[in-house]
């Protein structure tokens, strides 16, 4: 119970420390959700039902991934630069709890944008979603995996390089990942890359959770996602212990 209490207190401290930043984060999430739905809608015009379903379920996925893969490492890199991360390491708390509290914070912060993306997508393309009963734990897994990968990047890479990599990931997620369109539209070699990368399994899991009547996720994709979550979390934990 002590570990749980310490984790929650650290998460509370993180929320309070970033209280001035949280309104901006909400605005960014709103922009991402609306821009994804409206922007892709302008490109495809009046899409057929299957395309509309991909776009509507892709918007919340992009929001979840963007918060975890982009915002998490950028703010962690900022904490490393300003010295607040080093100050936290002086506290008499196990390093693993720092990681747990940060992942908890970023997992929770990504959820409002995901909900907004679902609402905007369903309204824009006039579709009915078939929500799976396991959508909530699936969403938490996707959000946590994205945050863990982003945290690992920022923990291992120098701050300038971490910021550059995350900026590149924005374009990868938006344009070169099968999130808002089927993987069959990509070149064969890129399809093979995404079979082992975490982005496509994230999209499949959210898509199947929002429209279970139309989409499914294979056991292999779910395993790939879980492995990425465990490996990224382990890498971030090792980096925190190593950089004493």
TrEMBL record:
<dbReference type="GO" id="GO:0140359">
    <property type="term" value="F:ABC-type transporter activity"/>
</dbReference>
<feature type="domain" description="ABC-2 type transporter transmembrane">
    <location>
        <begin position="6"/>
        <end position="209"/>
    </location>
</feature>
<feature type="transmembrane region" description="Helical">
    <location>
        <begin position="222"/>
        <end position="240"/>
    </location>
</feature>
<dbReference type="GO" id="GO:0046677">
    <property type="term" value="P:response to antibiotic"/>
</dbReference>
<dbReference type="InterPro" id="IPR000412">
    <property type="entry name" value="ABC_2_transport"/>
</dbReference>
<keyword id="KW-0046">Antibiotic resistance</keyword>
<keyword id="KW-0472">Membrane</keyword>
<dbReference type="Pfam" id="PF01061">
    <property type="entry name" value="ABC2_membrane"/>
</dbReference>
<feature type="transmembrane region" description="Helical">
    <location>
        <begin position="134"/>
        <end position="154"/>
    </location>
</feature>
<dbReference type="GO" id="GO:0043190">
    <property type="term" value="C:ATP-binding cassette (ABC) transporter complex"/>
</dbReference>
<dbReference type="InterPro" id="IPR051784">
    <property type="entry name" value="Nod_factor_ABC_transporter"/>
</dbReference>
<feature type="transmembrane region" description="Helical">
    <location>
        <begin position="97"/>
        <end position="122"/>
    </location>
</feature>
<feature type="transmembrane region" description="Helical">
    <location>
        <begin position="51"/>
        <end position="76"/>
    </location>
</feature>
<protein>
    <submittedName>
        <fullName>ABC transporter permease</fullName>
    </submittedName>
</protein>
<dbReference type="InterPro" id="IPR013525">
    <property type="entry name" value="ABC2_TM"/>
</dbReference>
<keyword id="KW-1133">Transmembrane helix</keyword>
<keyword id="KW-0812">Transmembrane</keyword>
<feature type="transmembrane region" description="Helical">
    <location>
        <begin position="161"/>
        <end position="181"/>
    </location>
</feature>
<feature type="transmembrane region" description="Helical">
    <location>
        <begin position="21"/>
        <end position="45"/>
    </location>
</feature>
